[in-house]
Design goal:
This protein has ten helices and 18 strands. With 346 residues, the chain is α/β, with parallel strands linked by helices. It starts with a strand and ends with a helix. Bound molecules: flavin-adenine dinucleotide.
Amino acid sequence: MKLAVIGAGVAGSFLSNMLQKSGHTVTLFESSKKESHWPVCAWGASRHMLEYFSKKAGLDFDNYIFHVGKRLKMDLPNNKSEYLELGGLVTYNKKQWESDLISDVNIVYGANCDKRTFPIGDYDYIIDCTGFHRSFLPKPKEDFIIPAYEYMVENVKDIDEFHVIGYRGARGYFWYFPLEDGTGFIGAGDIDRKYLGIKEFFDSHPNAKIVKKIGRPIRLSPPKMMEPFSDKNIIGVGESIGTVFPMLGEGIIPSLLCCEIFLDVFDKSTSNDTKFDEKAYRDKVLKKFQYYYDVYRIVRLKMDGKLSTVKHFNLLLSMYKNMKKDEKRFGFEIDFDKMRRLVNAL
Ligand SMILES: Cc1cc2nc3c(=O)[nH]c(=O)nc-3n(C[C@H](O)[C@H](O)[C@H](O)COP(=O)(O)OP(=O)(O)OC[C@H]3O[C@@H](n4cnc5c(N)ncnc54)[C@H](O)[C@@H]3O)c2cc1C
């Protein structure tokens, strides 16, 4: 099949690699120029899952790991701190990983594709991997995004662990994610755009040097709110159809899980020489990310000051049970009492 993949982020790079390997003719279009292309992200994810996806794509994930986390410190609005034991949360060289995925793919950089002018009819399928932009799919009825930005910094000598400051009302959080040799990402997502913690970080680390400032909003609305996932021969994969885990703004692994669903449905369609089974894709995506809607509701109720751990116990239990089942996929311990304490403290 002749395929256009739009967007060379995690979903677009992984899909292009896998689709080309299966014999399809793939062209990948990316809006940024080659020299300035940068995966906007703090590059933190579960090692276990990235090993799994790297293997599928023919890469050795060990070559990309920067920092293997042991503990994550979380400062809370009640001036207390909680610690999460980490079981595989790492930072890795996301830029290199994605670039290696597409080293053999035909890629057109500097192509800010517009649905109105793109030669859609020249391709069997267009895969919208444009993340937050969702450039090729119709707008959903309701979207929910949170502003975010971050700095890549160097010369940070005294922190070598993951550090997070949770904002009151779960309205966002500050993060420090260590990379290697005193480099790291500091950043924040904050619905109120106050970004508490960033100025304080620079005040307490006067030697920290900014290497890069980057940012874009993160989509927190789950797939249930992001339909349609397809439109004629256009199919959305990854953040473009709302796969980010709403409580954390964590999107790398969910985008890859969505790619896996897409590939499964696409392989079945092409091996039977039939049209892409939109219904099967829709059903599988909704099923896989079903509980993200519960998590999204927890976040919105908390933001609106309406979450009660008694009244909304079932929502919390759903989040806990689903996360616990997939503990390795998250890369940190999932403990109900701790989760409840955190939700209460925010
Ligand atoms: C500041 C920040 C920090 C984050 N940190 C983490 C983290 O540490 N861990 C984690 O798991 N998640 C994190 N996330 C979320 C995660 O990065 C995303 O959810 C994930 O990258 C989504 O992958 P994607 O491939 O669907 O989209 P993206 O990775 O966003 O890729 C979309 C690509 O499409 C391109 N594009 C957009 N429009 C067009 C167009 N019209 N034509 C051509 N190209 C186009 C973009 O330039 C981009 O390269 C973070 C997000 C932000 C904003």
